Amino acid sequence: MSKHSIFLRIYAGLVILVVLVAIFGYLLVQIINYQRAQEYRESLTDGIAFVISEGVARQQTPQQKMDWISDASDLLELPIYYLESNKVELSRTELKRIEKQQAVVRYDAEQGVAYLIVGVKNDLKHYLYVKIDSIGEKQMKAIPIFIWDYLVYYPGQEKEYLAKIQKHFYYNVDIRNISQLSLDSEQIGRLRSDQSVILYQDNASVRGTTISILSPMPNQPGDVLVMGPVPMFNWMPFQLAAGITLLSMFILCLGVYGLIVPMQRKLRQVNDALDIMQKGDMTVRVPVEGRDEMANLASSYNSMSDHIQRLIEAQRELMRAVSHELRTPVARIRFGMEMLAEEEEYDYRLQQVDMIDKDIEALNTLIDEIMTYAKLEQGMPSLDFEEIVLFEVLDQVVVETEALKTNKRIELNAPPISLMVDAERRYLHRVVQNLVGNAVRYCDDQVLISGGVTAQGMAYVCVEDDGPGIPEDERERIFEAFARLDDSRTRASGGYGLGLSIVSRIAYWFGGTIRVDQSPTLGGARFIMRWPAQRFKKKKHQKEFKEIKDSKEAEDGKELKD
Question: Which residues lie in Basic and acidic residues bias regions (predicted)?
Answer without folding.
Answer: 544-562
